[in-house]
Amino acid sequence: MPSWLTTFGDLMALLLTFFVLLLSFSTTSQNDFEKAIGSLQGALGVLDGEPIMTPPV
Questions:
Q1: What angle is formed at CA 52 by the lines to CA 24 and CA 39, rounded to 5 degrees?
Q2: Which of 15, 17, 33, 44 is deepest in the core (most CB within 10 A)?
Q3: Distance CA 30, CA 51 (A)
Q4: In a domain, 14, yes or no
């Protein structure tokens, strides 16, 4: 295994951690959350029905 692959793996783990921290410190309003879920349902072709996820409080 090439030595650069270890460094690349560490970089990917740190980037993932950074974006998870950004998401955890952000605030989302109820309206924005519902718009985002609706957009994902439209883009991914999910059928209309009961919402699977409950919005964050």
A1: 70
A2: 33
A3: 14
A4: yes
